[in-house]
Structure formats: C-alpha cells, structure tokens
Design brief:
The protein is α/β, with parallel strands linked by helices. Strand 6 and strand 7 form a beta hairpin.
C-alpha cells in the first residue's frame, strides 16, 4: 500500500451494512435541498440499492418530498400517480408499465420495484393532509408519448384546443415514432422543421395557465403542470433530435439543459403548493458530477451537476459512485437485448484501481478538505463510465475519461465488487440460471 492509498484507507468510512453507514453523508447534507445521487453504470445493483437506502433516509429524516430521475417524464409520472395514491390503484409492477422503450431494465428492475413499493407504503402511512413524496422524470426521449399526453389532457379540458394541438403535432406524422429519422431529414434539408409548431403549442398552453390549472384544487394544478411539461419536452426533444447531427456536444448540452430546467420547474411547481421543497436526483455520474472537472467539460460539454451547482451552490450535494469489477446489466448495441456482462478490473491509472488498492471492499469518502488523501485525489485520473451499452473490447476508448474527483463530486461511494441489476424481464442473453435473494417476493 503506497502513501496515497494508505491515506485514503485512513479517512474512508467503511460501509458495513449497518444502519449508521450513511451517517457521515447525512451530516454533510445538513439542510441542503438538493442531493444528486449518481451511478457509474446503468445496470449495477449496488448503486440502485444504495440510492434507495440513502433516499429513504432523506425522506424520513430530512423531509425530502420528491425523487427526480433520469427517465422520461410521462413514464415516471405514472409512478408518481401510483406512489401518491392517485388514479385507479394497481400494483408497483403496473406503475412501471410505461417503461417499454430501450433500455427497459434501467427502471423495470428489482431494486426500483422495491423502492416504488416502499414509497407507496410510506405515503399511505402519512397523515391525511401531509404532502406526499412524488416521483418524476427529467429526460426528453418520450417525444411521441408526450405529444399523446398533451392531446389527451386537452381532450379532457378543452376539445377545441386539442384539435389545434393535433394539427400542429401532425407535422411529425410522416416519421411516426422514428425521431432520429426526423432529426436526420430536417438537419439535411430533406424535410421542414416542426420547430415553429411545437413552440406555438407550448405558448398556447402556457397562456391558458390560469384557466386550466385553477379549476379545482392541487390535483388540477398537478395535471396542468404534467401537460405543460410534456409540451415543453416536445419542444426540447424536437431541438435535441435536430442537434444530434450537429455533433455529440450540441445534443448532450440540449439534453442536460432540459433535465436541469425540468428540475427547476418541478421545484417551482412544488414550492407553489406550499412547503420547502427538497429533491433527490438519480442519474448517471456523467450527468450529475460537475462537468467542469472533466475533460468532457474542456470539450464544451456541460451537465446537470454543473448547472445545479451554478444555480444552487452549497444548497446541493453531489454524490458519485464507483466500482472496480463484477457484473453489469448492459447491451452490446443500442436496442439490443440486455446481457449480464462481466466488468473488467479497472485500468491501473484510474480512480477505481486506486480505491481497489486501499483493500476496503466498500466505503464512503467525503471529498472536502485538504488532508493528504484529498490533495492526492486532485491529480486528474481516469474514471470509468458504463451506460446502457458496455463494450469491454474497447474499454479504454469507450468507457473512460479524465476527471478531477474532488471538484467533480462532494462525496464518492465505492463498491469494489458489484453485480448486475435484476431486470424484471430476463432475456436469454442475460443468462439467469438462478434467482438472487434480492429479487422481489411479489413476482
């Protein structure tokens, strides 16, 4: 063990499975109103489970009233209605039914199912007039579903406005749900852009705010906000799919700005209903760690973590996660089946390898201060990011970037060996020959 790993070993807080494991994190969070919980992959059980455990404590002990995740707005809103007891009831599995688009395992998995069940039970046990904890999506891939949601809402409250919305959104009809073809055709002048139509639709909806949102009670306000956010999503998604053919940085920035703006609008909406809103955010490390501390930031990319810090400053706490090796649920290509893949041991000059060399199997490390360990971590190192696709054969090129960890996050949580998250639907490639102990008993 060299000098730096020895210093890390001394200041790291081991995670033992005890109830007090995350006490140092709770103390650091204090009265902050935003806690951003990352993940180093979209398919690791330990990341999902830890986020759920931390979020439960934030809700019970610090009064957090919303969970906002890297998921599409209409799909997550179905969960929101379920956990708050709105609508026709159903089960936790029914609440996850909206997640039918690749990658389904990101939200249709055992850990999310358990958390959604816990959240419904928690809300059901609250006093009658107490604010219930909601569940919301921040992402923008659901353009077609959001169009249908806007029209469906207007059919209920203003049929004439619904007809106008149908006419405006018919601009996309030629492409069906193939949003990338729309982006390609408009970017290269093969088809007219629908930008003007989606902007007009959003502006009309916003002009009718008082008429639509004030009809009854908070539920009417929520339903209008749901529709307005879907219209905003269509506008931003239209821009996103056109930007895809201008380069990665352009489309990435459109997407992360949308997620940060959605978070801001959600907070403002909840604040209007009374109380001091506190939100937990779940998304990938690459979205929630401050982009300015990475080489992606040097290339012009920004992200949610950077935008949140710029707006909320010390009122936000950014938490990153890492792993050295294990298994992960991921695909080999976009829209390909989910597989349970082996995660190669981290590269020697990475943060993950440095944490592995401490000899600690799992720990929490606060990245504030100028002690020897934190000073040593300020040297830029490789950091691994596995999304919905994992290609071990091109590991260095596909999954690593340079970062300065203490500037990127306030806290890092490391699990040296991890295992794949359990999809609710197993594919043959996932190769599940036994059901793990953590799989929900309700299935």
């Amino acid at each position: 063990m060299n000098k730096l790993t020895n210093a890390l070993h001394q200041v790291a807080h081991p995670l033992t499975g005890a109830a007090v494991d995350y006490d140092p994190l709770m103390e650091l969070i204090g009265d902050s109103r935003l806690v951003l919980l990352g993940e180093a992959s979209h398919g690791t059980h330990e990341f999902y489970a830890a986020r759920a455990q931390i979020t439960q404590r934030l809700i019970k002990e610090k009064g957090f009233t919303a969970v906002a995740v890297e998921a599409d707005w209409p799909d997550a809103y179905r969960i929101n209605r379920y956990v708050r007891g709105i609508g026709d009831g159903g089960t936790s599995i029914d609440a996850l039914a909206g997640f039918q688009r690749f990658p389904t395992w990101m939200w249709r998995n055992a850990d999310v199912l358990d958390f959604v069940g816990w959240l419904r039970a928690y809300n059901d046990a609250l006093p009658q007039n107490a604010p219930k904890v909601g569940f919301y999506g921040l992402d923008l891939y659901s353009m077609h579903a959001s169009i249908q949601a806007v029209i469906g809402y207007l059919d209920q409250v203003d049929p004439e406005a619904a007809s106008r919305a149908r006419y405006r959104y018919s601009c996309f009809e030629h492409f069906g749900e193939d949003t990338q073809s729309y982006g390609y055709a408009t970017s290269f002048g093969l088809s007219s852009s629908c930008e003007e139509e989606v902007v007009k639709q959003l502006m009309e909806l916003q002009r009718r705010t008082d008429e639509y949102a004030q009809r009854d009670d908070h539920l009417a306000e929520d339903e209008f906000f749901y529709a307005e956010q879907n219209a905003q999503l269509v506008k931003n998604a239209e821009e996103y799919y056109r930007s895809m053919f201008r380069g990665r940085v352009s489309s990435w920035n459109v997407r992360d700005r949308h997620m940060a703006e959605t978070l801001d609008r959600l907070i403002a909406h909840l604040e209007q209903q009374g109380g001091h809103t506190k939100v937990v955010v779940w998304a990938h490390n690459s979205h929630l760690g401050d982009a300015r501390a990475t080489d992606m930031g040097e290339q012009g990319e920004l992200n949610v973590g950077q935008l949140v810090r710029e707006r909320y400053d010390d009122d936000a706490v950014l938490v990153g996660f890492s792993t050295y090796t294990g298994t992960v649920t991921a695909a080999s290509n976009w829209d390909a089946p989910a597989e349970r893949k082996h995660v190669r041991p981290a590269l020697p000059d990475s943060y993950e390898a440095l944490f592995h060399n401490t000899g600690l199997s799992r720990f929490l490390l606060t990245l504030h201060g100028d002690n020897e360990a934190i000073v040593g971590l300020r040297e830029p190192r490789l950091e691994r990011a596995i999304g919905v696709i994992y290609r071990p054969e091109t590991e260095r090129l596909s999954h690593y970037f340079y970062a300065t960890l203490p500037d990127q996050f306030d806290v890092v949580i490391h699990f040296d060996q991890t295992r794949a998250v359990e999809p609710l639907e197993r594919t043959a490639l996932w190769n599940a020959d036994e059901v793990p102990d953590t799989f929900p008993s309700g299935l």
